[in-house]
Amino acid sequence: MRVLIATEKPFAKKAVDGIKGIIESAGFETVLLEKYTDKADLLKAVADVEAIIIRSDKVTAEVIDAAKNLKIVVRAGAGYDNVDLAAATARGIVVMNTPGQNSNAVAELALGMMVFMARNQFQSGTGTELQGKTLGIHAYGNVGKLVGRKGKALGMNVVAFDPFITDAKVFEADGVKKVDSVEELYKVSDYLSLHIPATEQTKKSIGHALLTSMPKGATLVNTARKEVIDEAGLAQALTEREDLKYVTDIAADTQAELNEKFGLRVFGTPKKMGAETAEANINAGLAAANQIVGFLKHGDTKFQVNK
Hints:
- The protein is an alpha/beta fold.
- 38% of the residues lie in helices and 17% in strands.
- The chain has 12 helices and 12 strands.
- The strands form 2 sheets. Strands 8-7-6-9-10-11-12 form a 7-stranded parallel β-sheet, with helices on both faces.
- Helix 11 (255-262) links the parallel strand 11 (245-248) and strand 12 (266-268).
- It is elongated, with a radius of gyration of 21 Å.
């Protein structure tokens, strides 16, 4: 069987070598497609492979249709909205992610962004400290938990909301207070760390009403997805509330306009940086390879996301 590593933005060499080692030790063949710029190259590469490892690469219905032998796609990372799940499911193709492998990298970035904004993007002027501030966590999964724990270590008061976690003991085990609604979360958070996925229910769900309910001087930190932000509502909130700040790891469609209008109150990274550490790069790649081997050899579907 052939396993394709398709990465427009390649893994580190150490990760590629490790992935190849795992796959080839299992008796499979590795096919490598890196830094491709034409979708036709991907369509050609998938034609005769049984498995694909991707990063932020898009596995569309067209790609799936071209991959006649495909059995499994593994997204090396947590989010998987770059894969057409409906098309994959219709073909009986298993789709997996690698939850937790990038979590620490993203959590550290979120805290770094908070410091960056608290200190006026390291420009002149008096900044503020994180200690004693209330940190709100919107979605308490792998990343959210780590952000909360790191915030506690910095002396922050941490609260969290997750509609899928009803047991307060899950939060209390980390010294985190559970709040009962998203509205309450935003109302009390000096810093709000956003970790919700982009779904039909969450797209454009963070906008004017929630942002203007936040305390004076509050900062929204987005290391999730740009699609969950109502950009018109964000701009309106920033206009009405000159104390609000927004920092994102996924540049808004209107980022240039936001930068020009709001200056040091907003910041978007030039490219998505959440998983851009050597450790996360290697961890996610090796996890993806092990999951493919586990599925092809033993039928293991533990991390399947299109059940």
